[in-house]
Each structure stands twice: as structure tokens, then as C-alpha cells.
Design brief:
By secondary structure, the protein is an alpha/beta fold. It is built from 18 helices and 20 strands. Helix content is about 30%, strand content about 20%. An 8-stranded parallel sheet has the order 7-6-5-4-3-2-1-8. A 6-stranded mixed sheet has the order 10-9-11-13-14-12. Helix 13 packs across helix 15 and helix 13 crosses helix 18. It binds 2'-monophosphoadenosine-5'-diphosphate. The site of 2'-monophosphoadenosine-5'-diphosphate (ATR) has 16 residues, from helix 15.
């Protein structure tokens, strides 16, 4: 079930929120502590204003809520609210045998026994959950994983605590994968927020339509992307749309990771079929692969890992994704010489790809020694960025591979003022924004442009094939 957490200040605004998200949610949680004081007293009216089950919650400040008045006042609010037809009431574990509990039981309102930890995961989390559920109530733990090891602990809950009704939520950025894969943790529901304000919150639409989180079952194949940062990645939307279009029972999730070794153990634990790899792990994953392609070996970087019998196999689809949009120009002989701006990880793959196609390459970089290193490995020339204007009219292709100009620094341009002749093909691998400063200047000069989004889509399509064995459906908008 997907539960919408209601954080508006009036009952009416919360009703509107439910109406707006109605098709994506199964129930909602009225956060009385977030209501204006006058509205708090009217909480009992809310269940009859909506057509889905409502959880009654009055969260204290210590548990991450806003209720700061005396415990007595909170108890009175609970009792008054329980006159309404709530389906569930959330009572913190340290509130013992109260009138609230008695009234809830009399009225047949299900009790959710909760523990919150905004800082960490409690040490004895399994026994805590067990204890919460002891009296037949639903156990709820909302805790904060501080690294991927904590995330792995949460994913063991389903196995360790079979037959216990529970709600498990990992908060914060590491917890995002737990909110999407809530069913894999044995959690009966996941919480969604209409405005994704705090890190880790996801909108109901995203959970229901983009991820189809509520459709995950025992047979669903899990894929994902590992990186740090990773939550901004466009890959989940592209792959999930692809899976959905070909009715492939799979889900693709972003995993914020701080330790690659642990992630491989996790991937075995939940029997993942494959995952994408982004910054900064493209070289780190190599030690865990039993099989790599020639490109991965040559470039020293892997962006796609797939499960093959008995081992993990690494491939590099960035390489192909970069080449695909300019393949025709390469084959027609329009690209014989190239300037590659930058000498980082991306540059390495691109220089190799171009050299492999027989293109004469010069690498221009701010730090000459970095350019020299890649140039020596690939038998090409190198120079400093300051000398860029000297290459006017001498190259067919200019590729921008640095992070300069990347969102949110729209104004960056490592070759600002470059004297284009207008005959160059200019390719910026940044995809956000689509039209970078480099491309804007090149367009003004009449150059032909290639966009980072083209590369992203092509590498993603090839990944999709490696993951599923099917072509990416041509009728689907990958959302980039
Ligand atoms: P990636 O692996 O994504 O390519 P990276 O390894 O961090 O990223 O590479 C960053 C590239 O951007 C490098 O070529 C870097 O130049 P240096 O080798 O001199 O560090 C380049 N870069 C980053 N910031 C830059 C800036 N402000 N001006 C020019 N080049 C810059």
C-alpha cells in the first residue's frame, strides 16, 4: 500500500491533497501535529471527508514531529480525535497502557506501535520490532540508515521477522531504496509525500506510476544504479518505463552507496540481475567482476554490471553510447580529427572510443599532466586548455567532457570564446542542461551539435538490452 503523509495546516487543504493524489494512494496519514491549533481540535471530522482509510498520528518533536505541548494535551487530542472513524492510530512505543489504547481497541481501530530514530538504526532492531508487535499490534520503525551497511540490515527484516505485521521505513538519502522496495523488507506500506521536501521523500505519483512500487512481488527482478550522489539520476525513469512497456516484471531503483564491496554482497542477497554504475564507482567495481569485456579492460571503467551464471560481468555502454550518435559521420569520413576537452574518467573512455575508430585526437586539459597520461595510453596529442584557439580550423569534432557547465552552474564553458569556423561538429556530454554554454556558442557559429542526452539514451538502451535481453521499446519516451 502507498500511504500519503498529510502535512497541510488545515483539514480542507489535506482533503484537497488526498483528492489530487487519489489515484496513486491506498490510504493516508493525518499528521495532527502539523495542523494549525484550531484545526487540531477538529481532527475527528477528517476520516469522513475522504474515501480512504486514515492513520491518526500526533508526532512529538523528539520523534521528528512538531507537537511540543504537554503530553496530557496530546492525550486529550488523541481521545477527542478517536471519536472520528480512523482506521489506524499511531502510538509511540513508550506510551504504555493508556486510555488512548483502550478507546482504540474498543472502536476497532488498529494500533500501530512505533519507534522513530532520526539519527541512526537502533542496535537491536529485530528484537525491538518483535517486541512492538507482541500484543498483536502493527510494529512500525522509522529509522535513519547512516550508510549502506544499515540499509542491508533493514532488508534482512523480512527474513528475520516472518509473520509479524510491520511498517519499515529508512529515512534520509540512504533510505530512498527502502521506500521504493518496501515490499522486499516485508513492510505493509510505504509513505509518500506530495512535496518532496526532506531528503528521501518520494511523491505518490513517482512511487505508483514511475516505480510501480506496489506491484513488486516475489518474482520481480531488481535492477538499479549505484553512485554517490545518485538520487538525481535519470536512469530509473528510463528503465522503469522500458520494463513497463514490454510487461517485464522488474524494477530499477537508485542506491546511494558508500561501500562497493557491501553492495555486491547486497546484490547477491536480494538476487539482483544487474545494475548500472556511476560516479565515483566505475573503476571500484572492477575488482568484483568475474568477467569483463574488452572495452572495460582497455578503458579501466565499467558502467554496467550483469549477473551471469556464477559471477558478475562488467560491460561499458558509455563507450558505445558516445559513439552511436556520431557513427554515421565517422563512417562517412566526416570525422578524422578531434579535440577532446578534459582528461577525467569520461574523457578516457571517449578518447579510447575515437582512437579505436582511427580518429586523430588531441586532448586539451587545464592540468597538462592529466592529459598527458591519457594521451600516452592512447597514442594521441595533448595540450593545455589555454592553447585551444590555436586549433581553429584544424579539427572536425570537438567533444566537451568536463563537468564545467553542468547543472546548476549553467554559465560554465571551458572553451569560452573558441573561434569556431562553423564547420566543426560540437558534442557536449553534459545532459543537464541540454543546451550548454559550449553548445550555445557553437550553434551561433553555425556548427552541427550533438547533445549529452543522445549519449545518455544510447548507453541506457544498450544497458536495457544487457539487463533484459530485449531492445528498448521504440515507442517509449525515455524521459530525458
Ligand atoms: P569525469 O570522471 O566525470 O570525467 P573528473 O574525473 O572529475 O570527471 O574530470 C573532471 C575534468 O574536468 C578534468 O579534466 C578536470 O580538469 P583537471 O584535470 O585540470 O582537474 C576538468 N575540470 C574540472 N573543473 C574544471 C574547470 N573549472 N576548468 C577546466 N577544467 C575543469
Amino acid at each position: 500500500m502507498i500511504c500519503l503523509c498529510l502535512g497541510e495546516s488545515t483539514l480542507e487543504k489535506n482533503r484537497e491533497l488526498v483528492a489530487k493524489n487519489r489515484e496513486y494512494i491506498d490510504l493516508c496519514e493525518l499528521r495532527v501535529d502539523l495542523l494549525a491549533p484550531k484545526e487540531q481540535k477538529r481532527a475527528a471530522e477528517f476520516p469522513s471527508m475522504v474515501d480512504i482509510p486514515v492513520i491518526l498520528t500526533i508526532r512529538r518533536v523528539v520523534d521528528g514531529g512538531r507537537f511540543s505541548l504537554a503530553e496530557r494535551t496530546r492525550k486529550d487530542l488523541f481521545l477527542k480525535a478517536l471519536d472520528g472513524e480512523f482506521a489506524y492510530v499511531d502510538i509511540e512505543d513508550d506510551i504504555k497502557k493508556t486510555d488512548i489504547e483502550t478507546k482504540a481497541r474498543e472502536k476497532g481501530v488498529k494500533i500501530i506501535r512505533s519507534i522513530h530514530d532520526m539519527e541512526r538504526i537502533p542496535d537491536d532492531i529485530f528484537s525491538k520490532i518483535y517486541h512492538l508487535a507482541e500484543r498483536g499490534d502493527i510494529a512500525k520503525i522509522a529509522v535513519t540508515p547512516r550508510g549502506f551497511a544499515d540499509v542491508m540490515t533493514l532488508f534482512r527484516i523480512k527474513e528475520e521477522l516472518k509473520g509479524v505485521d510491520k511498517i519499515v521505513i529508512g529515512m534520509g538519502e540512504y533510505g530512498v531504496c527502502t521506500r521504493v522496495l518496501y515490499k522486499l523488507m516485508g513492510s505493509m506500506l510505504t509513505f509518500a509525500s506530495d512535496n518532496e521536501v526532506a531528503p528521501g521523500q518520494i511523491s505518490p505519483r513517482k512511487l505508483k506510476i514511475d516505480y510501480r512500487a506496489d506491484k513488486v512481488d516475489d518474482k520481480t527482478a531488481v535492477y538499479g544504479i549505484i553512485g554517490n550522489p545518485v538520487l538525481h539520476s535519470a536512469s530509473p525513469l528510463m528503465h522503469n518505463r522500458g520494463f513497463q512497456a514490454i510487461s517485464f516484471n522488474a524494477i530499477y531503483v537508485p542506491f546511494l552507496v558508500d561501500n562497493v564491496r557491501l553492495f555486491f554482497a547486497f546484490a547477491e542477497q536480494i538476487r539482483m540481475r544487474g545494475f548500472s554504475v556511476t560516479v565515483p564507482f566505475k573503476a571500484d567495481v572492477l575488482s568484483y567482476l568475474g568477467n569483463i569485456t574488452r572495452e572495460v579492460k582497455q578503458i579501466g571503467s565499467c558502467n554496467t554490471v550483469v549477473r551471469v551464471p556464477g559471477m558478475w560481468k562488467g560491460i561499458n555502454t558509455d563507450y558505445y553510447g558516445f559513439l552511436r550518435p556520431i557513427l554515421k559521420e565517422l563512417e562517412d569520413g566526416h570525422i578524422k580529427t578531434a579535440l577532446v576537452i578534459g582528461a577525467g574518467g569520461a574523457s578516457q573512455a571517449i578518447v579510447w572510443a575515437l582512437r579505436n575508430r582511427g580518429v586523430k585526437v588531441t586532448i586539451l586539459n587545464r592540468t597538462l599532466s592529466h592529459a598527458e597520461k591519457i594521451a600516452k595510453l592512447n597514442l594521441c596529442e595533448y595540450d593545455t586548455l589555454d592553447n585551444a584557439p590555436m586549433y581553429r580550423g584544424k579539427v572536425d569534432l570537438i567533444v566537451q567532457t568536463t563537468s564545467v557547465g553542468l547543472y546548476p552552474n549553467f554559465d560554465g564553458n571551458p572553451i569560452a570564446g573558441f573561434p569556431y569556423t562553423g564547420k566543426e561538429i560540437v558534442y557536449d556530454i553534459i545532459y543537464k542542461p541540454r543546451m550548454t554554454k559550449v553548445l550555445q556558442e557553437a550553434e551561433k557559429a553555425g556548427c552541427k551539435l550533438h547533445f549529452g542526452s543522445e549519449m545518455l539514451i544510447e548507453q541506457g538502451k544498450m544497458q536495457f538490452e544487457a539487463f533484459t535481453g530485449y531492445h528498448y521499446p521504440s515507442w517509449v519516451d525515455p524521459g530525458l
